[in-house]
Amino acid sequence: MTNEQKVEQIRKWIDPEERVTVGFRDEQDLNAAITGCSTESVDLAIDTRVPHLKQRISVPLSRTDVAEDPFHYTRDPDRPLKHRRLMLVIDDKRPSVIY
Length: 99
Prior knowledge:
It contains 1 helix and 6 strands, in the order H-E-E-E-E-E-E. The chain has one helix at about 5-10, and strands spanning about 20-25, 30-35, 40-45, 55-60, 65-70, 85-90.
């Protein structure tokens, strides 16, 4: 998949209220919101163990695979229910979280 194709799929999910699934080599099944996307990188706000504290990172699209997560669904009651959500698989370890 090219970076342009990845951007096309990711841009549909840029919404601070909508979650996507993120997986790294060392951690899987993380919840995150996509805060931005360009043809080179995707910006994420990953949920942490501390409520209301997000880990904000930017990941190169060349190290990211885009897929669907069939095990999670969207929860926004004001929008139609989607039985799948976006999943980003990143070929790297998760950066350390600094509290």
